[in-house]
Amino acid sequence: MKNILILCIVLVGIVTAGFIYLKNKVPAPMPEGEKAEIKLTPCEPSTAFPFAVIAEYKYLNDGDSVKFIYDLENYVLGSQTTDAASKVCANSAKGQHIHLILNNMPYEAWYISKFKKKLADGHYVALSFLSRSYHESIKTADAFVLKQFNIGKDVQTKIGDIDLKQPLLFYSRPKGEYIGNDTKKILLDFYLVNDSLKNGHKVRATINGKIFMISEWKPFYIEGLPMGENSIKLELLDNDNKPANKELLFQTIERKIILKAK
Q1: How far, in Å, CA of 98 to CA of 137, rounded?
Q2: Tens of pLDDT along 195-206?
Q3: How confident is the model at residue 62 (pLDDT cuts 50, 70, 90)?
Q4: First to last CA, the chain
Q5: Are 236 and 203 in contact, with CB atoms under 8 Å apart?
Q6: Bridge partners (DSSP) listed for residue 178
Q7: DSSP secondary structure letter of residue 137
Q8: Is residue 147 a contact partner of residue 211, using CB atoms and an 8 Å limit?
Q9: Up-side HSE of residue 21: CA atoms within 13 Å toward CB?
């Protein structure tokens, strides 16, 4: 009987110790209303495409539309980037593509090298660059093309033209809605023309009011965003933290994205 009593006491002690250990080991739930910390961390190195080239690029005015024609070398549209499975960010099931950005509006992903797009009358600055299947841009001199043109009555003129030789910032990702696992790490990627942030310039990213200063042109992961609407603003700044150019459209861009649990 005495041995049984001792055994019971030992078992109670083991259970109690285990409870205390687990209590200390398992993080306490976040208090209701408290927000997760928003973090911005550099992405791991991605599959490189040093020889990917937009060898030729044409745009042909066709009434109220434009025909876009690309001749690519060493790059396969519609193919999955080799390291796509190891990435934790959103990936396109349609594969590698071209990002077409008109007047710094949200990009369109094109998985073919020839297409026709209807455009309203006006002046357009068109940036095209090669994108991995998970929407990360290829940041080499041969993987992008920047042009400007007019549609409508001013089609044969240079009315509205801007200086394309100055530093220009284009917003790429994040974009649209993210659902489920895709909400854990959100890709932040932008495109620079005539700048690489090696001259003291920087990009100020303001995410839900929190400021991050970026001094290297590389992709980042955004973590800790809450479900629902989120705001991302990018600004290109000079050495004195002032606007790096006079073109507001290519200096400060703000977007909203939506995160959903399911």
Answers
A1: 9
A2: 999 999 999 999
A3: confident
A4: 57
A5: yes
A6: 259
A7: B
A8: no
A9: 6
